[in-house]
């Protein structure tokens, strides 16, 4: 099939998907953007109508506002959960961003973000700068714009976590027999902003009986794919497949990375050999909480009141909902918050590009989190932690799941 034929058949596929929207409006009830700013163009219904108008020639070529409209989406997937036609609006937006980016170019910000995250050298340099700034209390001074990386709470911890029996029902996947060596996938945000939390994850996995390797990996490709830079995302996916495919288990404590790694088969679907390797890899990807529950890990109890925020990618993307709650219920006095699965408004770079709207969505989350009376708000995704960290203070800490269920560091 020639490129032109392929492009045209893909366009037909997207148009037929968009045609399935009957404008029922169910998506307006759950879209966080609509909740804080009731404009129809914020909703799945509005954006799908705009995309269809462009693809069928109703909107003229070269209309720059269309690109902005397609970027105005958290990719949270809440709309798809309630859509009677099961339209995956987030996927449609990513598809449109790629089409429009290839045609009209990408913004300087998205190009810089893509290159910066894709480069190991730039990430290492960034880590040095961020570590220095975090030490100098910049997180506090910048009002949470630069997130802090708090130590795990040490009070009320009776000792190392217990590594135990396998008989507890997980309700989820089973570990392959005898698989005890794993690759810990250090995502960009964990490595750059939350290295103490990443260390806590490794300590926890080790305490659960795994031999943990930390291979040098590349960015998972999600920031690039989300902004339509699919070619860069594909190149990163191939690098990661080569690095990781020798392992039987690959674990990440980043909900976004987990979902992105699981999505490699779809990303590489056009290249048969790579698609096969990507499919084999995707079956070995585990989220942090999921593998701990499957391994029968029992965290020690801490005297903490904790509530939990669902990462959209982990919850809706991978269906990991119970595992973190099971661990937190055992480790703490757990309290479920209202609408724990509402997006926090961070969504990668959305919070930087739309700060006012992002702040309003975060305020809804803060109200629900504080209403629980919790001491700690926990998430299993550094992307969420970067956003949620802005509300820390006044008796509420924000932490990664690993920091609450890990065994203590030696000497603490
Ligand atoms: S819920 Fe689905 S079908 Fe209904 S308006 Fe939204 S996108 Fe369209
Ligand atoms: S993916 Fe989220 S932000 Fe985007 S339209 Fe759907 S509900 Fe709204």
TrEMBL record:
- State the UniProt keywords alphabetically: 4Fe-4S, Electron transport, Iron, Iron-sulfur, Metal-binding, Repeat, Transport
EC number(s) per UniProt? 1.1.99.14
The 4Fe-4S ferredoxin-type domain sits at 11-42, 64-93
> What broad class of enzyme is this?
oxidoreductase
| Pfam families the UniProt entry points to | CCG, Fer4_8
Give the cofactor note: Binds 2 [4Fe-4S] clusters.
Q: So which domain of life are we looking at? A: Bacteria
Statement: the UniProt record of this protein carries the keyword Nucleus: no
* Matches recorded under Gene3D superfamilies: Alpha-helical ferredoxin (1.10.1060.10)
Q: Which reaction does it catalyse?
A: glycolate + A = glyoxylate + AH2; (R)-lactate + A = pyruvate + AH2
Q: Where is this region: Disordered?
A: 148-173
What this protein needs as a cofactor is: [4Fe-4S] cluster
Query: Main role?
Result: Component of a complex that catalyzes the oxidation of glycolate to glyoxylate.
Alphabetical list of PANTHER family matching this protein: GLYCOLATE OXIDASE IRON-SULFUR SUBUNIT (PTHR32479:SF20)
Official protein name in the record:
Glycolate oxidase iron-sulfur subunit
């Amino acid at each position: 099939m020639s490129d032109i034929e392929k492009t045209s058949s893909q366009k037909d596929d997207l148009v037929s998907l968009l045609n399935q929207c009957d404008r029922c409006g169910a998506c307006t009830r759950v879209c966080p953007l609509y909740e804080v700013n009731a404009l129809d163009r914020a909703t799945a219904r509005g954006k799908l109508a705009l995309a269809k108008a462009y693809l069928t020639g109703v909107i003229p070529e070269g209309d720059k506002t269309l690109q902005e409209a397609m970027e105005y989406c958290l990719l949270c997937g809440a709309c798809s959960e309630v859509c009677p036609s099961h339209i995956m609006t987030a996927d449609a937006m990513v598809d449109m961003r790629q089409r429009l980016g290839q045609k009209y170019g990408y913004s300087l910000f998205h190009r810089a973000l893509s290159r910066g995250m894709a480069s190991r050298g730039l990430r290492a340099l960034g880590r040095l700068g961020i570590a220095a700034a975090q030490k100098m209390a910049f997180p506090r001074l910048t009002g949470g714009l630069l997130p802090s990386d708090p130590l795990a709470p040490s009070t009320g911890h009776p000792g190392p976590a217990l590594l135990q029996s396998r008989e507890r029902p997980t309700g989820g996947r089973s570990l392959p027999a005898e698989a005890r060596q794993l690759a810990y996938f250090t995502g960009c945000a964990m490595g750059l902003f939350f290295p103490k939390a990443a260390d806590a994850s490794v300590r926890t996995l080790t305490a659960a009986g795994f031999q943990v390797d930390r291979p040098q990996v590349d960015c998972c490709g999600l920031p690039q794919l989300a902004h339509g830079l699919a070619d860069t995302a594909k190149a990163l996916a191939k690098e990661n497949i080569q690095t990781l495919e020798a392992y039987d288990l690959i674990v990440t404590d980043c909900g976004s990375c987990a979902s992105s790694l699981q999505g490699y088969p779809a990303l590489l679907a056009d290249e048969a050999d790579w698609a096969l390797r990507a499919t084999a890899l995707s079956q070995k990807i585990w989220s942090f909480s999921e593998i701990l529950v499957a391994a029968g890990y029992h965290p020690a109890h801490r005297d903490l009141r904790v509530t939990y925020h669902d990462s959209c990618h982990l919850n809706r993307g991978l269906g990991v909902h119970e595992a973190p709650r099971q661990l937190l219920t055992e480790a703490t006095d757990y309290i479920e918050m209202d609408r724990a699965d509402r997006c926090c408004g961070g969504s990668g770079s959305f919070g930087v590009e739309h700060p006012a709207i992002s702040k309003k969505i975060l305020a809804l989350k803060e109200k629900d989190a504080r209403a629980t009376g919790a001491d700690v708000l926990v998430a299993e995704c550094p992307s969420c932690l970067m956003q949620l960290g802005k509300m820390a203070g006044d008796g509420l800490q924000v932490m990664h799941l690993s920091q609450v269920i890990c065994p203590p560091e030696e000497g603490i």
